[in-house]
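WARN  no MSA supplied for this record, continuing single-sequence
INFO  ligand: fe (iii) ion
INFO  echoing inputs
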Amino acid sequence: MSSSFPLRYRLANARLAVTPSDHGGMGFIDNGFLEVDNGFISAVGDSSQGSANKADEGVKVFDCQGRLITPGLIDCHTHLIYGGAREGEFEQRLQGVSYETIARQGGGINATVSATRQTDEDALAQAAAGRIDHLLAEGVTTVEIKSGYGLDTQTEVKMLRAARKIADMRPVDVQTTFLGAHAVPPEYAGRSDEYIEYVCTDMLPKVAEQKLADAVDGFCEGIAFSCDQIARVFHSATACNLPVKLHAEQLSNLGGAALVARFGGMSADHIEYLDQAGVEAMAKAGTLAVLLPGAFYYLGEVQKPPVQALRDAGVPIAVATDHNPGSSPVLSLLATMNMACVLFGLTPEEALLAVTRNAAKALRLNDRGILAAGKKADIVIWRSAAVVDLVYALGRNLCHSVIRNGEHVGGAEL
Ligand code: DI6
Ligand code: FE
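INFO  complex generated
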């Protein structure tokens, strides 16, 4: 990790992607500059407007040659910590076996649970760090990581510790989410209510007490947990002062989005089967939509999330990789943005907002996600001036330089 920048400097001659209002679209300053002071953005402006915009004497200026500057990208929904691999299931699915059938046959999430229980904390962190390198190369500076492949207190704690460790191993901020209610583990087969009781009375309080999680998630689905069971987990999370979010309406509509909205939750994620009542509940509660086109793509889904209804209701849309070894082994947020455009009809600017401002909102991180004075200096400089170029060609990474907390952490030096 090099640090080619002084504490205070100016990026000049840049095209800045700015977001003038909280809910609207993206705006641009074509001949823009951005100043960084001690890890934070201290000024953003238009160089063509007046001499007040000249850099102070002594402030080092870097010429960005007209390139696009965006906030650091945020992957707000991942399952990056796990043991083992599930390529075999991928091959089975290519033969026509469904994700649900594989799960009911003891594969799926429980296959990864068994491998994760057998892998130690350091090995989990090392493997995840290797995966995260792919995301960092594309300008990701913040990543959310869930537990949920332990399904016993000891292994869930191990996963969350491994996730926290990543922040010391790589130049990335990590937000952790406790996902004890991900699946019923084999030792609780047929006793899902008892398992939920264990999650609420043992796992969650211990995770909260050790401050290992920033939020609590669940999987509300026929192959996982009912709304009543998830509500019990959410009551327990609320008692521990942890905000909630939910895997909802991915394979069917159980009303999970309305449930998470009722708890004032951060986001409802997947939501392919979301109905109008769910959209309205989310809008009213300020619960964000997190779209996960990687899982949609890998599972060959046909039911698309109600993007236009979300837009009409003013529900901000975030997009994330959902990286996991089963339904979404994607390690590219740029490819995921492309999928959000091609498969779900987002515009390239919506896709960019979805992994910056809206992803920050989904994680309730108010200190990042937009280019504005006072925000963290997490910044990506791109090898193009146009947002569409970031998502146009699948497999092309136009990331030029990555700055985190004001320091150069990836790509070329300026
Ligand atoms: N939905 C998903 O897409 C992942 N978890 C979930 O609740 C899949 C996890 C896996 O298949 O390992
Ligand atoms: Fe997920």
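The pocket of fe (iii) ion (ligand 2) is lined by residues 77, 79, 247, 322, 324 (CB under 6 Å).
INFO  checksum written, moving to next record
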